Structure formats: C-alpha cells, structure tokens
Amino acid sequence: MAEASVPALALNDITCRFAARDGGEPYTAVADTTLIVRDGEFVSVVGPTGCGKSTLLNVAAGLLAPSAGIVEVHGERLLPELGVNRRAGYMFQADALMPWRRGIDNVVAGLEFRGVPRAQALRQGEEWLRRVGLAGFGDRYPHQMSGGMRKRLALAQTLILSPDILLMDEPFSALDVQTRQLMENELLALWAENRKSVLFITHDLEEAIALSDRVVVLSAGPATRPIGEFTVELSRPRDVSEVRMTPGFAELHREIWHAMKEEVLKAYARQRAA
Amino acid sequence: MRMDPWRLTGLRLLVLVVAIGIWHVLTDPDLIPPFYFSDPARAAFFFGRPFKVFGTIIDWFVTGEIFGHLAITLLETALGFVVGAVLGLGVGLWLALSPTASAILDPYIKGFNSMPRVVLAPIFAVWFGLGVWSKVALGVTLVFFVVFFNVYQGVREVSPNIIASARMLGAGPRQLLRSIYLPSAMSWVFASLHNAVGLAFVGAVVGEYLGSARGVGYLILQAEGTFDINTVFAGILVLTAFALLLDMAVGVVERRLLLWQPKMSETEPT
Ligand SMILES: Nc1ncnc2c1ncn2[C@@H]1O[C@H](COP(=O)(O)OP(=O)(O)O)[C@@H](O)[C@H]1O
Ligand SMILES: [Mg+2]
Q: How far apart are CA B3 and CA B1, in angstroms?
C-alpha cells in the first residue's frame, strides 16, 4: 500500500535559471514548480510556447540539472550528474532518429545499447514495427519516411524498452490533423495495454484533455509555474475525435481555457514586444 | 539548359579534337611559318607534339613499362589516403570530444594547416628515403587536415537531440562514440573523400617528382632531365586520366556509403 502511494515521478520545487549569453541577468525559465505523476497516470502539461515545458521535461529526464529542487523517480532521487533517468523513455519534440540507421536499426538501438543479442533484438524490433503500423518499412532510412512514419518509428524506438515512465514533448505537434488523431488513438491504445506513467507536453489544450487523466496548466514565462490543475473524468477507452464531441469535454475545455487565456495573451504580448 | 546527351558528348569531344588540333598545328615545324620562335622546331621543343606524346603513351602501355610506375604511384596514394584519413579521424574525434585538448592544441593545428606542407617533402626524403614512404608521408600531411577538420566539424554538429535521445535509450560514453559520433563523423569524412583522395594523389606525385626511383612522377622527372618534353606531357596526361578515374571510383564508393543521406532530387516529406 505504501508502494502504491509513491508517485512514479515527482518534481519538487524545481527552478531552472539559464545564464544569459551576453553575461546579463540570468533568465529564470521555470520557478518553484512541483509536478507529480502517479503510477499509471497520464498527465498533460499545457502552456504557451516558450514557457519552459521542454525544460521541465529535460529535468524529469535527468538531461538537465535544475538550479534548485529535487526530482524523485519512484521514490528515488534522480541525480543528473550520475546519469539520465533510466526508468524513463523520451520522445523528443524535434526529430531525434539516427539518420544513418535504417528504421529497424533505429528501433532496436536501445536494446543494442543494453547488450541484447542481435537476433532477439531484431525479433522484438519487427514486432514493434508491426505494432506502430510500420511493418515492412524497417529497411527505409528516416529521410525516406513521412513525418508521421518518423513519429511512429520514434514511438517504437521508445516503447520497445518498455519504460516505466514515458516523457513526451509535443510529439505530434508537427503532424497534420488526421495523422495526429490517428497517432493519438494509437498512443492511447498502446498505453492502455500496460498503463505506464506518462508526462505529455503539448501546447494544444484539446489534445491534452482528450488524452489525459489530469491536465496541468503552466503560466507564461519568465518564471513559469503551474497555475491550475484539472482532473479529466471522461471515460476510457476514448477515441480522441469522438471524445471532443462530448459535453463534458466542452465544459472542461471552457474551464481550462478560461484559466489559460490570460497567460496566452501575456505570452503573446511579450513576444510582440520582443 | 537540357541537352541531348549524344549532342553533349559530341560537343565535348569536339573541344578535345580542336584543342589537340591547335596544339598539333602550332607545334608542327612543317605546317606553319614560325611567328614567335625564330627556329621552327622551337615550338615543339617547348610544347611537345601531340602525336609523339600519344605515341609515348601507347608505347608505355604496349610494352607494359608504365604499369610498374603507375602501381607505385597508386600504392602511395592509397597508403597516404588511408593513413591520413585514419589519423584525421582519430585526432578529430579526440579533439572534438575533449574541449581542453582542443583549446590547447588549437594554435598549433592552425599553424600546421596554414603551412605550405609541400616544403616538408625534402625533409621526408631525408627521414624516409627515396622509396614509397616519403611520398606516403607527404600525402598523409595533406590528407590529414582535410579529414581532421571535417571530422571535428562533424562531431561538433551532431544534433544535441540525437545525443540526448541515445542517452535516454541507454547509451554510455563508448556507445555514444561508436553509434553516434563515429557514424556522424564518417559521413563528413565521406563528404571530403574527393578532396582527400585528390590530395593523396598530389602528395604521391609531388613526392616522386622531388626525388624517387619509381613512379609516374619519377618518369616525368627523368624526362625533364633529358629535355624530353613529349614524355613529360605523356606523364601529365596519364596522371590526369588516372586522377579522373580515381575521382570516379570515389564517386561510386561515396554513393554506396552515403545511401542514408537525402538527395536534393528527392522530395522531402513534412
Ligand atoms: N539552454 C538554454 N539556454 C538559455 N535559455 C534557454 C535554454 N533552454 C531554454 N531556454 C529558454 O527557456 C525558455 C523555455 O524554453 P522551453 O522549455 O524550450 O519552452 P517550451 O518547450 O515551453 O516551448 C525559453 O524562453 C528559452 O529561450
Ligand atoms: Mg518545447
């Protein structure tokens, strides 16, 4: 029972300051942010562009040491100087596939790094290619694939290691609406199979509501912090295009948008001024 | 500007024929009155005569005399290229991944690179003798820097995303080196392949020319010693032809190795 109450991921009072390039005042991207992802929970973080969402995710991944604050993974403290978060898989916002590797070799990269025998890795790799709908495309290079296919490949690359925690940074934001909804449904289906904990970053509120158990809204930068937290009580399994039509969805959307609007306008004004 | 390929080839051949024709006419003592040199044989003395040059080339290949020399020159080229490329790759990786070492060595590398390295040839001849190795050494100094700078650049420009992604997938430092830095650096080495092979060839020929007992450069050196300008030109033409062949071979290798890179002609998805 005590085990169950330990969250999969806990960011406690995280502050991230970046040194200014011209030696001026350091820029505080994220300030005193606390964020919890419970075991098996799907949490989305929404916030205006440039507010510090990727920064938070990098902290959770152990790729970036916060200026202050503690990260705990299943109750254990994460120390970036000792390495990245080994229990997490990370899907990056930008393309992070190895362009010199064929699809299948990208998918099995993680197994290869872990010393899994090649034959076994390939078997698992082919299985994952099939699960993300890329069966038969394994011998293509990333540049020979469409944006949607590359995202599927990245998804297979991450999920093949079956990480306890899935960190996703606007994974579908570059896709067209149809492909995107397809991928969102696929993600939900894969997630439903074994309920990993997910921290999903997006700037799209609808996507956040459609996918998550909980939506965390961040303020505009600088010194970004959570300004609201909303539990999504829509029933599962969900179809992302259908769930958008439900009254519960519309109401939640209105509620969260109301909380966000001011921040979005702030971010917009700041960008105009810059 | 699209041209029928046959027409294009025809026009290219025409340029060659015209050039050789002009060469022939201007150097044949019986064809034109001497307008620049007082002696009609003078032009031929300085510029050779095309048919004699081709005769020499054909002779070389028919008697097989050239093959030994060509083999030596190509061997020197190959060794110079391989040794220079491996050293450039190793040092490039090392310096790119070790900011301290790179900061310390930076001025020396810049210095060596700006030095006209052909002047090292006499020193190499003293160190390594007149055999193959002094030419290889010259080729290495030329190839090394091209490869080195490309590898250095290549490693520096690996997308931080790809590195972060590999780390998240569980790659340790050695695996990063093997699976990320090395392939990325190799792609830059291949991108400089034409340049590097060309320079290895230059190193071999210049080395031979400055002192040797075998090789095509040696043939030229010898012919020059006896004022046999036709043989000098024959040597130059054979070298040029082989440089072209070498470049084409590199092109073939390159296309196979860089299969993973998008080409301009391909349309890029989103
Ligand atoms: N390495 C860095 N150095 C300096 N500033 C940074 C760095 N990374 C991010 N920032 C700044 O921090 C802010 C948040 O960035 P980011 O987390 O990428 O935003 P988001 O993902 O929400 O769009 C931005 O203003 C960005 O300019
Ligand atoms: Mg971002």
A: 6
Predicted local distance difference test score (pLDDT) of residue B33: 66
* Burial environment of residue A166 by CB neighbours within 10 A (0 to 12, 13 to 18, 19 or more): buried
Of the candidate ranges A224-233, B189-198, B216-225, the one whose mean pLDDT is the lowest: B189-198
Residue A72 and residue A202 share a domain = yes
Averaged pLDDT score across all residues of chain B: 87
Tell me the pLDDT tens digit for each residue of A208-238: 999 999 999 998 878 888 988 999 988 888 9
Find where tokens 């025809």 sit.
B10
pLDDT score for A4: 57
CATH code assigned at A77:
3.40.50.300
Q: Are A63 and B164 inside 8 Å of each other by CB?
A: yes
Q: Considering its fold, how many domains does chain B have in total?
A: 2
Tokens read off for B54: 């081709």
Interchain CB distance below 8 Å, A113 and B172: yes
In a domain, residue B265? The reply is no
Alpha-carbon dihedral of residues B69, B73, B75, B76, nearest 10 degrees? 140
Q: Are residues B124 and B233 in the same domain?
A: yes
Structure tokens at B146: 């091209």
Residue where one domain finishes, among candidates A144, A162, A180: A162
Number of domains in chain A: 2
Domain range for B244: 48-257
**Angle (nearest 5°) at CA B165 between B161 and B168:** 140
Measured from the CB, is residue A138 less than 6 Å from ligand 1?
A: no
pLDDT at residue number B270? 46
pLDDT tens digits, A244-273: 999 999 999 999 998 888 777 777 777 777
Does some domain include residue A1?
no
Flag whether A111 is in a domain.
Answer: yes
CB contact under 8 A, B169 and A141: no
Structural domain boundaries, residue A126: 97-162
**Same domain flag for A261 and A193:** yes
Does the CB atom of residue A50 touch ligand 1 within 6 A? Answer: yes
Q: pLDDT-derived band of residue B269, with 50, 70 and 90 as boundaries?
A: very low
Band of pLDDT at residue A1, cut at 50, 70 and 90 = very low
- Do A267 and A138 fall into the same domain? no
- Residues of chain A in contact with residue B259, where contact means CB-CB under 8 angstroms, are 141
DSSP string over A120-169: HHHHHHHHHHHHTT-TT-TTS-GGGS-HHHHHHHHHHHHHTT--SEEEEE
Q: Which of A113, A146, A174 sits opposite B169 (nearest CB)?
A: A113
Q: Is residue B266 part of a domain?
A: no
Compute the C-alpha angle A144/A150/A153, nearest 5°.
Answer: 115
Residue B179 has pLDDT above 90, yes or no: yes
- Residue A3 placed within a domain: no
Distance CA B161, CA B146 (A): 27
Residue B241 included in any domain: yes
Grade residue B200 by pLDDT with cuts at 50, 70 and 90: very high
pTM of the prediction? 0.81
Burial of B11 (0-12, 13-18, 19+ CB in 10 A): exposed
Among A134, A162, A190, residue at a domain's last position: A162
Residues whose CB is less than 8 angstroms from the CB of residue B265 and which lie 6 or more positions away in sequence, other chains included: none
